Amino acid sequence: MLTRDARRLAAAVRIFRLIFSLRAAAVVAVSVTVLAGRAGAAEPACTLAGTGGDDVLVGTPGPDVICGLGGDDLISGLGGADTLIGGDGNDILDGGPGKDTLEGGAGNDTMEGGPGHDVFLAGPGNDVMRAWDGTRDVVNGGPGRDQAWLDRGLDRAISVERR
């Protein structure tokens, strides 16, 4: 449901990474860079983990690292600076308030930030990323046909990746 004044960015472009800034929905600057990716980066330790099946995982008001693993999971971070990792499957990730990192993983995932400066990391699949709160959020697409929905607030740094 799109009840807010939003702009749609369809990630159907064949580039490594596109970064641009929005100011009242006007493109201000554009640059193209090559991503190094997270190769070699250590995965965070999960404070709450799902199973190989479909799970509903809810965090605490504080910072959490929630890992969905396999299946079609529903993950809610509640408050705090959370890291939500969907894993394989078609997951729904809701960051809630706080500076959250939402990683979709493989599958067609839906990620929604909340109040706070959120980072969206899509994986392989057709992902939807929603940054509605009027703060500065970062959106990173992945292989597939990703969509980023943005309000006309302070969202400034957006990147879309397609391989």
Number of helices: 0
The overall strand count is 16
Structural class: mainly beta
Biggest sheet, spatial arrangement of strands = 3-2-16-14-12-10-8-6-4
Q: Could you give the order of the helices and strands?
A: EEEEEEEEEEEEEEEE
First and last CA, distance: 29 Å
The shape is globular
Catalogue the unreliable spans.
Answer: 1-40
CA radius of gyration: 15 Å
Estimate what percentage of residues fall within beta strands.
Answer: 35-45%
Please state the average pLDDT score: 75
Please estimate the helix content. Answer: under 10%
Largest β sheet strand count, sense and barrel closure: 9 strands, mixed
Task: Spell out the blueprint of helices and strands.
Layout: E1 7-11, E2 18-23, E3 26-32, E4 48-49, E5 56-58, E6 65-67, E7 74-76, E8 83-85, E9 92-94, E10 101-103, E11 110-112, E12 119-121, E13 128-131, E14 138-140, E15 146-150, E16 157-160
Parallel strand pairs: 4-6, 5-7, 6-8, 7-9, 8-10, 9-11, 10-12, 11-13, 12-14, 13-15, 14-16
Antiparallel strand pairs: 1-15, 2-3, 2-16
Structural summary, described in words:
By secondary structure, the chain is an all-beta fold. The protein has a domain at 46-146 and 154-163. Helix content is 0%, strand content 37%. It is built from no helices and 16 strands. The protein has strands spanning 7-11, 18-23, 26-32, 48-49, 56-58, 65-67, 74-76, 83-85, 92-94, 101-103, 110-112, 119-121, 128-131, 138-140, 146-150, 157-160. The strands form two sheets. The protein has a nine-stranded mixed β-sheet, with no helix packed on it. It has a seven-stranded mixed β-sheet with strand order 1-15-13-11-9-7-5, with no helix packed on it. Strand 2 and strand 3 (26-32) form a beta hairpin. The radius of gyration is 15 Å and the shape is globular. The two termini are 29 Å apart.
